[in-house]
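By convention, the token line describes the chain's fold. To illustrate:
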Amino acid sequence: MSHNEIFSFDPSHVEPLEETSPEQVTEAMLTARTVFSIWKDYTLAQRLEYMKQLRLYLVEHSENIVQKIVLETGKVPVEALMTEVFTTIELIRYYEKHASSILKAKKVSTPLFMYGRQSEVIYRPMGVIGIVSPEIQPFQSAMIPIVTALIAGNTILLCPSKPLSALHHLFEEIFAAISLPTGAVQILSGGNRVAELLVEAKPAKMYISGSSHASKRIYQKASEQMIPVELQLGGKDAMIVFADADLERATNAAVWGAFNNSGQSRATIDRLYVEYSVYGALITRLKEKTEALRIGQGHEAEMGSISSVRQLQLLQQQIADAVQKGATLLCGGKQIDENHLYFEPTILVDVDHTMKIMKEETNGPVIAVMPFSTDEEAIRLANDSDYGLGCSIWSRSTKRLEMAVQQMEVRNICLNDIHAQMNNPNLPMSGMKQSGFGTTYGPDGLLAYCHPISIMTYKGSKAEEFTWYPYDLNQYETFQMLIQSFYGKKKKLAPKEMKELYDKLMK
């Protein structure tokens, strides 16, 4: 194998992907810009018709798509269907219904002193959008920004951070099948090296999703060229269970929140904080339910494999660090066999915040559990993280839940639930701290791929304006009257004074 061939990893499926060369990246950008000059002039109704055809294609071919996702990622079929295909279909349907109102030109108010003018905002597409998608949840993590950017009128250069042969060809098949203009979506191969070449080609915007460490290098390169960037990065999500919570539901949620997709999603529950008085009871249930999980492939399995050898090694290092510092393995902690990337679902107790497992991204089936005594301690521990993606809070007390919402340093919160808000395309999805910035989903997610254009139109017939040259003392005094009367504590102007001010401004 030559040094510029990359293999898609799967024990039963190996197919080489040739890395996109610098010359090919340049050519792809030229093509994308040419197609953009045409695609941007399609009406929104025309673009949404393509998205409708895309939705129908995904529905009709969902089984084939699931098989290819499973082949490349090792996840179980139901999770490929739920978290990859269904979420994409749901987002398309949402924008089919709402894109028109979101992108519609909006009239806005005009200040009194600018009387005679009309103000509005219109939205224009940005150009070529560079998308760097992660190896975790590779289908929906690519398709969601692609769909959103296309609806807004942009063209796409997609660079998966891990070249996945089956999905690479799948993306090409999908967009060819719906007769999307050739070049509107192009896929590059080569991971982060090619992503940096993509930045050098100067797209209108970069959308980067993946691990914080790798994404920062691409972000820094983009910032040097003043390219706007959206960062949808990883998290270290916490779950807090207070003593008055429904323990059975909370335990079931913790197991699913920690181990779905083999613990490999941005919003995986990595840290579980449990009030002391119910800690023992919850731990007993958690261990029992975790050990009952079925690992493997096919429709009978509940947890699939780790996505890569690199992720497996990182997971092993974090567990070893925790145990060396005093943590106890309640269950799991081992690779099931050397020929596959299956890893036992793992519970760590006796943990503290000096351990890597409590501080760094994990992306694997591990949950670390820690008790707390007071509400304040729970919030402090949950917020003691460099990441700020999401959290899950459990209590029957409305007052306690409201307190937690106000104090949690995250952008996505579930109350007595887990991951649920991420399945609602009406809600914005974003992060803070090291989890990134920018918005996916909802109206803001679509507007993120547009330039808002401010327009003010004069409707009168005056040859000059009071605010223009030549300046004199009268202008100064008039604006002082305006400021003092409308923005300060002075009483409102009498009708005569109001007319005097109006006449001066309209002069």
Remarks:
- Residues 77-103 form the longest helix (27 residues).
- The longest strand covers residues 117-125.
